[in-house]
Amino acid sequence: MCAALTVSVIIPVWNDSRRILKCIDALKKQTIPADQFEVIVVDNGSFDNTFEVISGIEGITAVQETRTGSYAARNKGLSIAKGEFVAFTDSDCVPEPSWLEKLIESARSNPGFGVIAGDMSFFIDEEQNAERYALDYESFFSMKQEQYAKEGACITANWLSAKQVLEQHGCFDANLKSGGDHEMSKRLSRNGFPVVFCKEAIVNHPARSFDEILKKRRRVIGGAWDKNSSKLKPILMYWRASKLFIRRILTTLFGTKATIQKKFSVMKVVIAIFVVSLAEITRLMVGNTSSRS
What we know:
Spore Coat Polysaccharide Biosynthesis Protein SpsA, Chain A; alpha/beta; globular; eight-stranded mixed β-sheet; 8 strands; 2 domains; 11 helices
C-alpha cells in the first residue's frame, strides 16, 4: 500500500522567476493524484524577485537556503520532505505529464534501487535565444542519462530516490558547486544501491545558448577542482579535458549520421569548450576560487 504522500518533488532555484513558473505548471499537470505528491521550491539566495514569485503560488512549499549552491538547496528541501520518495528536477525544466507516474512505477519494479534516472529531451525556449548549433550540441552530448546510469551516475534534472536511502548515505555534498549529483549517485552505487534508467520518465530541458554552455563548463571544472585533493590535480584535469575533447571530436566526425554542416557547427562548440576548460583550470591553479556562474 502506498504511503499517504508518495513523493516530494524538490526544485532549487536561483534568479529564475520566469522559468520556475513553467516548471511548476508542468508539475500541476502530472497524471498521479495531486494528494500523492508535494512540490518544494528552494530559493538559493536569489537577488531578483524569484522568492516573492514562488511564495505567492498556491499549493507549493517555498523555502530559502542562504548557503550558496544547488546541492545545499536540495538538502534543505530534503530535510522537510514528507514523501516516501524524493524526485529532483531543475527550475528551467518542463517534466512530461507522466513523469512522476513513470518514475514511481520504475521504483516499485526495482526494489533496492538507489536512483531512478529518467530520460532528457531538449527544446529551444522562445525567450532564451539559444542557437541552433547549441541545440545540436546538446542533443549530441548533454545529459545522456542512459549512459550515466550504466556508469552508476545520474543528474538531478531527472532523479528519484527513496528519501530514507539518501538520508542514510549523508545526502548531497553541499560543498560542491557542480558535480554533486554524480558524486551522490556513484556513492549510492558503490554501496549496493544501483542507478536504474527509465526511458519513459521524460523531462524536457531548454537547450542552453552557446554562452550558457561555456558557463556550465566552468562550473563543472570548478566542481571537479573542489572535490579533488590530489597535488597532481592540475595535470590530471588538463589530461581529462584533453581526452574529452578528442573523444567528442571523434564522436562528432564519425559517431553520428548528421550532416557535414551540422557536424562542423558542433565541432566549433566542442573546440570552444576545450579552450574554456584549459583557461578555467589555469585560473584555479593560480589560486582563484570556483564560481557558480
